[in-house]
Specification:
Strand order of the largest sheet: 1-3-2
Shape: globular
Number of domains: 1
Strand content: 15-25%
Largest sheet: 3 strands, antiparallel
């Protein structure tokens, strides 16, 4: 990663970053686990929010 930290990730990057399918990302967003944002016509997630959700899920 470059010196500038990435804050948002496109949905298509989800497998490399989070190991989830596209359908799972949208399903979890619909369940209010984390939001999906629109930026310049693209669907993106905030990396910090998805990571926090994933970490909370592994505690149970």
């Amino acid at each position: 990663m470059s010196a500038q930290m990435k804050i948002y990730a496109r949905i298509k990057e989800r497998r490399d970053l989070f190991g989830m399918s596209r359908a799972t990302v949208y399903r979890r967003a619909k369940e209010k686990c984390f939001p999906i944002y629109k930026r310049n016509g693209m669907s993106v997630v905030k990396i910090e929010e998805v990571t926090a959700w994933l970490e909370a899920e592994t505690l149970y």
